[in-house]
Amino acid sequence: MDVKKIPLFAWILLAIVLAVISGQFFPVPLARVFFTFNSIFGTFLGFVIPLIIIGLVTPAIAELGSGSGKWIAITAGIAYLSTMLAGFLTWGTSQVILPRFLTGTMVQDLSSEGGANLTSYVTFTNSSSGDGMEIVVEPVMGVMTALVLAFILGLGLTLVRGEIVKHGFDEFRVIIVAMIEKILIPLLPIHIFGIFLNLTMSGDVGRVLGTFLVVVILTFALTLVYLIFEFVIAGGIAGKNPFRALWNMKEAYFTALGTSSSAATIPVTLQCAEKNGVSRAVRSFTVPLGATIHLSGSTIKIVGFSLAIMFLSGADTSLGNYAPFIFMLGIMMIAAPGVPGGAIAAAAGLLSTMLGFNEAEVGLMFATYIALDSFGTAANVTGDGAIAMIMDKLTRGRLDTDSEKEAEELAVRK
What distance in Å separates the CA atoms of residue 353 and residue 101, rounded to the nearest whole number? Predict the structure, then answer.
C-alpha cells in the first residue's frame, strides 16, 4: 500500500485511536518524548502564523482589489456576507444546543503539558516565562500586526502599476503554501497523537471525544440547513424554485464529498449551474471565483468546534466577545489557499489571538477541521451555485469580457 495515497483525515483518526490506546500503558519517560515534540511543533506554528497571514492575505487582497470589473467586487461581497451569516447562525445554534450536552463536561486544562503533571524534556516557547530552561523562538511580529500589515500591503499593491512587487508576494505565497503542505500538514498527525495521549493520561479524553461527536452532528446538520437557506434566498431573487435548484446541485455536492477539493469540483459545479439556467458567461465567472473565496461550510466547522472548545474550557462565548472573530474569519477564508487544511491554517492566528487558544487547542481545531474537510467543501461548492443564480439575475446573464478574464486569471492564481 502506498502511504502517500492514504488521506490525511485517515492519519488523523489513526493518531487519535493510537493515542487513546497508548495512553493506557505508556510510561511517563516515553510520553514526555511526544510532549517535547508538541512543544517544538507548537512553537514553530506560533512562529509561522504571522508569515502565513502576510503570505496569504496580502496577495489575496491585491488580486481582489486589482480587478477593475465591478462584478468581482460584488461577488466577493456576497461571498463575505454568506460567510458572516454562516458564522452567526452557527454561534446562535451552538448557544442553544451545546450547553444542553456539555453540562458537567468542562476540561480544566487542554494544554499539551497539562495532564498528569507531564512536561517536555526541553521547553520551546514563543515568549520567555523565566521558568527553567527554555528555547525561545519569537515570531517576527504579532498576529494582529501581521494582519494590519497585510491589509496595507495588499491595498497598496492595487495602486502599483508595476508587477515586480506583486510577483514577489505571489512567490512568497508559493513558499507559504509549500510550507503548509510539506511541513505543517505531514507533521500534524504526530502532534494530534501527543495531544490525545495527554488527554488520555489525564482522564479527559472521553469528555472531549463525546463533545466533539455532538459538534460533528450539529455542524453537519447546520451545513444542510444553511444550503437550504442560501437557495431559498437565491431562488427568491432569481425567481426560481429553490428546492429544485438545490437538487440540481447534488452532483457537485457528492463530487466534492469524494474529492474534498473545490477546484477539482469546478467542472461539475459548472454543469449543475447550467441546469439552474445560469448563463455560460456568468457561471464561468462566478463558479471558479466562488471556489476560492466562498467558504461558508468551512466557517460553520471552525465556528462550531471553536465554540465547543471554549465551552469545555469555560471561556466567554458571548456575542460581544465572539462576533469580532467571525468578522475577521470571513477575511481569512477569502485568503485561504486551496490545500487540505489551508483554511484552518489561515485562521490559526485568529484562534490564538482573538479567542486565546493555546497550541493544543489549535491542534484540536486542525484535527477536527481536516477530519470533516469533505463535508465543509461540499457545502462550499454547492453554495457557489446559489451565488451563481444571484449573479445571473443581477447581471441579466451578461458580463463584460474584461471582468470574465480577470476572474479566470484570479482563479488560476489561487
Answer: 27
Q: Alpha carbon of 60 to those of 45, 187, 398: distances in Å?
A: 21, 26, 26
Q: Are 65 and 150 in contact (CB under 8 A)?
A: no
Task: Please give the Cα distance from 23 to 205 (Å, whole number).
Answer: 10
| CA 297 to mean position of chain CA atoms | 9
Structural contact between residues 387 and 290, judged by C-beta atoms closer than 8 angstroms: yes
Query: How far is Cα 137 from Cα 280, in angstroms, rounded to an integer?
Result: 52
- Determine the topology of domain 3-413 in CATH: Proton glutamate symport protein (1.10.3860)
Which residues are CB-neighbours of 266 under 8 A, at least 6 positions away? 287, 288, 291, 381
How buried is 170 (Cβ within 10 angstroms: 0-12 exposed, 13-18 middle, 19+ buried)? middle
Please count the other Cβ atoms lying within 10 Å of the Cβ belonging to residue 104: 5
Backbone angles phi, psi at 138, to 5 degrees: -80, 135
Looking at 10-102, which runs of residues are DSSP E strands?
none
**C-alpha–C-alpha distance, residues 75 and 256, integer Å:** 21
91-146 per-position pLDDT tens digit = 999 898 888 776 555 555 555 444 445 677 777 666 666 555 677 778 888 777 88
Q: Which residues lie closer than 8 Å to 186 by C-beta, 6 or more apart?
A: none
DSSP annotation string for 302-340: HHHHHHHHHHHHT----HHHHHHHHHHHHHHHHH--SST
d(CA 110, CA 209): 13
pLDDT greater than 60 at residue 210: yes
Nearest to 330 by CA among 312, 314, 343: 343
Distance between CA atoms of 191 and 196, rounded to whole angstroms?
Answer: 9
CA 55, 58, 59: angle at the middle one, nearest 5?
85
Question: In degrees to the nearest 10, what's the CA dihedral of 334, 336, 339, 343?
Answer: -110
Q: Which three cell numbers stand for residue 194?
A: 501527543
**Where do the domains of the chain lie?**
3-413
The reported pTM is 0.76
Contact residues for 153 (Cβ-Cβ < 8 A; gap 6+)? 54, 58, 62, 169
360: cell is: 493544543
